[in-house]
Amino acid sequence: MSLFEQKVSELHERLHKKEISVTDLVNESYKRIGEVEGKVKAFLTLDEENARTQAKILDDQLVNGGNEGALFGMPIGVKDNIVTKNLRTTCASKILENFDPIYDATVVQKLQKAETVTIGKLNMDEFAMGSSNENSAYQATRNPWNTDYVPGGSSGGSAASVASGEVLFSLGSDTGGSIRQPAAYCGVVGLKPTYGRVSRYGLVAFASSLDQIGPVTRTVEDNAYLLEAISGVDPMDSTSANLDVPNFVNSLTGDVRGLKIAVPKEYLGEGVGEEARNSVLEALKVLEGLGAEWEEVSLPHSKYALAAYYLLSSSEASANLSRFDGVRFGHRTDNAETLIEMYKQTRAEGFGDEVKRRIMLGTFSLSSGYYDAYYKKAQKVRTLIKRDFEDVFEKYDLIVGPTTPTPAFKIGEKMDDPLTMYANDILTIPVNLAGVPGISVPCGFGANGLPLGLQMIGKHFDESTIYRAAHAFEQATDFHKQFPKL
Amino acid sequence: MSRISMEQVKHVAHLARLAITEEEAKQFQHQLDQMISFAEQLNELDTDQVNPTSHVLDMKNVMREDVAKPGLPVEEVVKNAPDSKEGYIRVPSIIE
Q1: Which portions of this protein are annotated as coiled-coil regions (chain B) (predicted)?
Q2: Contacts of A351 in chain B (CB under 8 A)
């Protein structure tokens, strides 16, 4: 049995009893990577030498220790849009092929304080734009359950590395579903925190009003531990919320009696596959059996979320990605005489198709004469979507539905049509627009043998209720005890 | 017939500082038209009385003390620049 089939709390206890060492945990990671990485292709950069040195330091500390934190010595993977000092960070883009960050993201500093060990940097869709990892400039990560299928995206490497046992857990980022969708496709637990819960300092920005960093883990309990470690206000991110960080693990009581669950009819209707719908209805039975109550509700503006999201996120991206101009960092073209040619040619050579497409759409919708009709209109629709959630949360504690309309699709299946690809995200995008937290937990398998995810959405800054319900559901089912055979 | 002209596509590419070929311009013309048609479903909604949301949390200006702190070392800052000399970043001539 792999060490990573155990939970953080179990491994923590075994470290303290000296049954295992941090070096054992790090060895387990690189051994597994050696065995399966050729098939899974989750990593862009490995940091093996540093990880082994760090493991030795921590093992020495443990000899006289006793006060280690919950995550002490745990091997973690980090999505490659989170900057790591002196460890190459590419955003899976050619434009940052040799980028060597000069500082650590706040979440990385927090991991260091928690004394985790970074194993390497994880593949993603270029600049987090995509739902399949096929938009990486380097490699297409595979779904560990069937390597002909996509792992989802954009945090595909984060989900695939955890599902295949290469790391114990990982960090991803979620702008429109980029943690929850791959977590669903790979059969692991992924949470997008409330906007502002986790500092974005050092997260290479895609859409600043939507982006959040969050944990990808095998169990809900591990997820709660990891979120607690990375949360909190940060002077370097003025949009981080000045609130105390709850003890999320304490909320895992197993008790959901009287919990009021809302099930939006739009999340079980048109565009949602039979398998996803049935798995949610089964999950609701489980929750009902545990004493929760559920009713059907409506989020009437759901169908407009996708269009609003693509206008807003692309607009923000077109502004954020203007920093990649070949001047201070990243690729610079050899084929330009003037400064403006240098900008244009550098960006043409450095960015992939999907990134260019979104920069074009964003620039268009922010341009003079179109701003009101597209960008501002989308911002107003965002208000309506946010109100939908506020209305439901006046009466209910939690919203439940599928994470994705179907299980994972085959590699290459949706690459030709951007709009079909975008439709994967219809159930996750409204959550980012409203800024509320959402989790995906495993809730079944499709006929193709690939996992399905249950999405639970909570009130602003109420990750605790999400964790309580997700944990109770997980403990009542055995989906999290199944592992892909690679 | 696309509602977006080739001239518009080229203008947007210029604003975005993106060199595009004639072939790419045609492709963007088609894809932008598709995406904009899709986005126009938002016009089904009456939003005259709705305020835009640019940020979901109820936050005003976030202030901090103005305290001088050391910045990043120059050699670190220019480390990733494609072309630098003596602590400066070099670019093609900006004045004709």
Answers
A1: none
A2: 18
